[in-house]
Amino acid sequence: MCKPLFDLSFFRDTPPMTPHSNPATNRPPSATRRWLWGGVAVALLAAGGLAVLSGEHPAQAQMPGGKGGNGKGQMPPQPVTAAAAKTQAVPVWLTALGTVTPRSYVNVMPRVAGLLQSVDYKQGQMVKAGQLLAQIDPRPFRIAEEQAAAQVEQTQAQLSGAQGDLVRYETLLQQDSISAQQVSDQRTTVAQLKATLDANKAALDNAKLQLSWTRITAPVAGLVGLRPVDAGNMVTTSGAVGSNTSTSTNSASPIATIAQVQPVDVTFALPQQNIGEVVQQLMAGKSLQTQAWDARNTQLLETGKLVAADNQINAATGTLNLRAEFTNKALTLFPNQFVNVRLLVRTIPGAVVVPTTAVAVGAPGTYVYVIGADNKVTMRVVKTGVAFDNLTQIVSGLNAGERVVTDGLDRLRDGREVKVVQAAGGGGKDATRPHARKPAASAAP
Questions:
Q1: Per-residue pLDDT tens over the stretch 153-162
Q2: Residue-range domains of the chain with CATH
Q3: Structural contact between residues 397 and 382, judged by C-beta atoms closer than 8 angstroms
Q4: What pTM was estimated for this model as a whole?
Q5: How far apart are alpha carbons 432 and 436 in whole angstroms?
Q6: Cβ(112)–Cβ(286) below 8 Å
């Protein structure tokens, strides 16, 4: 059972009063003390209730001077954190969502039909231009080359004999020992054999070319994909039959796929209201620094430069496609990877900046609380500019060196006395790191 707030047992211990009894003289001493302590308890409870209703702590209500015990009836200083406005160079970044695209993507198809003898590349590895990827059985093509070479030798022999006969015929014609018609026919035979020799030589060159195509080499340097076909399959000029990545045995696949990723491109789009300055600098031949960040905007993957812009704005989205180039030496960018792109448009020198947490938006507009020399705050309306790395540029309304409140703004009013308990640092160590993910471009001042 709960213990009652007051012990009222003294009422039961008090003897009943009679008409001839005097309450003051008949009450026992113990009852008198109980009445006294009960009155004191009621008085204390009443004082505590008044203190709660007035917003004061009971201990403070007993202090002289009212609230806070400072003798002036004022609230105690409000604990806050603060930072001083400072000047520094402010980079103006435009942010967008980009897609990594290889410089070129090649499906290596066989150019002759035959049995695939070997696959000579390691899947998922870098290959060089001209490196052997696969080998088709060269024996039928080597035989065809030898046959074409024999045809050339045969035609050369026939041509040599016909040319010798023509010389003799021309000598006999000078001696009037042969008819002119016979000499003319021999000249025609020599011309025909020359043409046949040229055709046979072309057939020999074609046979050599077909034989060279049995060695399948990389046309470009890049990252080779997973092996789509194994050795032992028959291949045709339309692809390999019986690949290990297809459910159909009659489907055709390339011998290999190569993505040129060094260098690699990143394609992204910017709203049309932000492209004017970008296009002007691009047309003037200036190199705009571009950064590629991971999907969480926490790690810088690669730094490159803007190289090209599309020739028209997308009417459906109101954006312009741009392309940046990255060397990608560490292969941190992969084709079709989504990245957060940051484009450095310009740098504002000597800008006044404060921590972003010091800036508030309310009925007066955008404002900060400035701490004066007497540790009292003053609300001041400001005009903000670029936000980066947990810092915000103050275009007007604040001077460098003035202290502003960074935490506890919601508990302040104009003229309130504050007590700075901790100096807040102005931003992070890396001024190029984005403070939040922004798929759309941020507006530049």
A1: 999 999 999 9
A2: 1-16+25-64 (no CATH), 78-90+348-423 (2.40.420.20), 95-102+258-346 (2.40.30.170), 106-256 (2.40.50.100)
A3: yes
A4: 0.63
A5: 12
A6: no
